[in-house]
Fold each of these.
Amino acid sequence: MAIVLSLVMITMYFGFMTMFAFAKTAMGTILMPGLSLCILLGAGVIVGSFVLCLVYVVWANRFYDPAVRRIMS
């Protein structure tokens, strides 16, 4: 699970950084006054990291913690 979530996070982050480096005109597209595509995608990376953290916490509470309790008792 940790490897999968890490790969998703790495893909999101490096995808954003690659676009930032090589697609500057696209990232500079103004969606509405004060909001560019770059700002929107950057916020998406941040929100995505919180979602991935939530996915891990739910998984750990449902599967990992009960397995550890069974082993320890």
Amino acid sequence: MQVKIINRSNFPLPSYKTLGSAGMDLRANIETPIRLGSLERTVVPTGLFIELPQGYEAQVRPRSGLALKKGLSVPNAPGTIDSDYRGEIGVILVNLSKEEIEIAPGERIAQLVVAAYQKISWQAVESLEQSERGTGGFGSTGRQ
């Protein structure tokens, strides 16, 4: 599938790093480093604008290496980019570590995964079919 993209950053287009990669890295399109204190949030621009086909969304997800090494995450993960959005892709980042961290220009800050979705319509009913799990909530399926 081809997706239209405008790249107003100084960096190459996002690309898959391996044959089995589901996501492409997004880079910080900034001129100077950003410092984020503990528990601070910010929106980091990417310089990218996309036109997704209807029936698809782009999901912005944390990079596992940054989450582990720096405590940097995407608080609304996955962040959804709708098919009719035409603005610049921005990545909301939060520093979950106890120390201040730095985001460098061009640093790979998040992943972008494109996924199909399906629209639904609600059918109001008075009861639902029974299932093995039933109404069991969080943790109800056990620990193993």
Amino acid sequence: MRNKLQKIGLVSTGIFIGVAVSLNFSAIADREATQPLPLDELRAFTEVYGKIKSDYVEPVEDKKLISQAINGMLSGLDPHSAYMDADEFKDLQVGTQGEFGGLGIEVGMEDGFVKVVSPIEDTPAQKAGLKSGDLIIKLDDVPVKGMSINDAVKRMRGKPNTPITLTVVRKGMNKPFNVTLIRAIIKVKSVKFKLVEPNFGYVRITQFQEHTGENLVDAINALLKENKAPLKGLVLDLRNDPGGLLNSAVGVSAAFLKPNSLVVYTDGRAEDSKMHLTASPDFYLRGNQDDYLKALPDWVKSVPMVVLVNSGSASASEIVAGALQDQKRAVIMGTQSFGKGSVQTILPLGNGTGIKLTTARYFTPSGRSIQAKGITPDIVVEEGTVVGNSEEDGFGVREVDLENHLTNPNSTVTTTTTIVTPPTVITPENTGDKMNKTNKGRRLLPGEIVSKDDFQLNQALSLLKGINILKTVDAPAKPVETSLAK
């Protein structure tokens, strides 16, 4: 089964600047065409091709025309299908290791412009103050309008320590502004953690990479060692996590779920795109890899949990949040997630290039598609603090905002879960949080994992403490030993 998963190569990702989108290679066997070739359209294509070759103002290489035609076919399908030249395909393979060159931005396209989904933590983009929702309209004075997403990405990549100037349009500002960034080799630390209070741990996953599962186990064991006792509550922070490898998302979910619990299933036209992925080593390990989850302490399966999400939580993040929500394993808190519910398969081509093709939709254990909708939190808590990269002062972009996005096949289905159900909404205003009403918190200091003024985190901790109080109250009374009883 594990080999089957590797062969199919399902991926669940955002689009990254300088970061390879998470992948798993696959080769899909040739299938017989079920429809006759559209001869009129093919004739029109060859006529256009011939006219360009003979009449265009400048000579155009065949290779360029064909590459652009392929790219047009794919980019017109949905925001996540794309053609990759040899360099882009090579970069794609490097990115799953958690190290890449570039600016550190997750992007989409809107009206022909590059739209920032979220800057990645500790990168040139985040340090320069780029925000979710920013529109990039020029790259070094070259207009973005008319470029494909791949062309724009290629321009933003480059050698480390070289500058690039972005012209940015931001909601609420009267005119565009320029920001110069210095390209860098970016090493993304996939898992960060902190014992925020005695008995209460915080784990943040910034991106689902090849070793995220192992890093999660290390983080939990480090928290256990520091606390010197099992935790009484755990916050899993998936805010602004753009996604990554599907098998890593299954592994993270499996860390907290009972063995063989359903994590996610996929459905597409091809038979090999229809899969049920469970909390089993077959679906989160690769090759002969040892089962890293065996190193987890038993209490991890039952420790009270809150999962934080926002509009920057996409794809693999939503798989984890949806699985833990449907399996009634955690309370989901925050704001509506991004809504990327499609699966991409990476198909290498014979000339060193490749395509990223949307081959399936994924569904949570209860059958929900989050495509163009996202995960609805059990408790909606507005963001009152800048947490690494936040929506504040910007505006959250979601899958539904992207051109040509796939529709949601079951958008009318709603599901409720444990403890509190929507529309419970918590804001700094209705909690009397004076700091957050007058000042939307502060940015993380260098080396800081999470801010003590993080409004959503503080609400999560309050809930976990309340759960522990209820557990104590509901616990059966222990018999009191007296002299008469003896």
Amino acid sequence: MKQKAKFILVGLAGLLAGAALTVNLSAIADKEAATALPVAELRAFTDVFARIKNDYVEPVEDKKLITEAITGMLTGLDPHSAYLDAEGFKDLQVGTQGEFGGLGIEVGMEDGFVKVVSPIEDTPAFKAGVKPGDLIIKLDDTPVKGMTLNDAVKRMRGKPGTSIKLTIARKGVAQPIVLTLTRAVIKIRSVKSTLVDPGYGYVRVTQFQEHTGELLAEALNQLYKDNKAPLKGLILDLRNDPGGLLNGAVAVTAAFVKPDSLVVYTEGRTEDAKMRLTASREHYLRPMQADYLKNLPEGVKSVPMVVLVNMGSASASEIVAGALQDHKRAIVMGTRTFGKGSVQTILPIGNGTAIKLTTARYFTPNGRSIQAKGIEPDIVVEDPAMPESENGFGLREADLDRHLVNPVGAEPVPTDKPGDASKTPPADKPGKNGEDKKPVALEPGEIVSKNDFQMNQALNLLKGLQIMQGR
């Protein structure tokens, strides 16, 4: 049998404008399934192809027609399957290192427009104020309506230092917002950490990349060194983390649970789509790589933990939150997560191109499907600094057209419609007369703001647990 490379993604909830999907590379045998061809439908396809070639108002190249047909086949399946041309496939591979050029926006498509899932921290989009749920309706002076998602992403990428104008429609804002962003080389250090109080550590994972596990180990070692004593509590912040590399999610979970504990399992139609990934070195290390989790400080696997999540926590971050919740290793706090519980496989098809195909659903250790439901926090704490829509009625997987259904239970009411069952009043309504505050801005050099309401609630909970343990 012919060997073919296959990339496995439990990656970002959409494509990244100026960012790249992170993947796990493995090799599998190409399957030669004996499937009967739908002769009548293929005849209809060739008839349409011939009619376009002969009668369309302008000449059309064969390559363009075939490419558009492949694109249509994949985008018609679900929000995450797609065709990657040579440039898109190359960008995907380059992005596994966490360095890429562009704006730094994770995007999807809705009603023909580009919809922002999440801006990535410390990028031009984030600094310009692009928000989850924004609809990009123009790129420079070109309407987005009618573009494919790949075409829109290509336009947003470009040489660092060059500018692009985004025209954005935002819910609750009457007039379009026009932002001019300067493209940059996006370098993301996926793990940031600090002591938020003596004895209490804070670790933020912004995205799951190739080296996220190693960076987490470094961060934990540094926190214990800076504290000069075992930690009393730890906050793992996965808010607005769009996901990434599956091995990264396994590594982060493995740092905190018992060896060989089940982290996630997947189910699909083919045998290679069925996996059980545990907190064991072969499931998060590259071949011949030293085990960076082996020498973690004593107490890491037992220190009281709170995991912060919100609607921007997707895919790989949901795997971590779900596993730690199922193993009762941490208390999950925040708001319901995005709900991307599917696995995409990147299959090269020749000439430097590939298809991104949804091949499996993944499940938490207790058999919960995250798909279109997300992770429900143990303690619901909304962010009073965010607009109400971003706490309860923002964009999630269940709102995307053609999303896969959840195989083990009813889906929640779509979040952009009234009556969302997950809606919970904020713990503390901000401002005077119900006015919304602006999101808390970080001071230069800050990892997390001291005014971050959800972080402070997590810290208070950990201190309360410490008092109870002392008693």
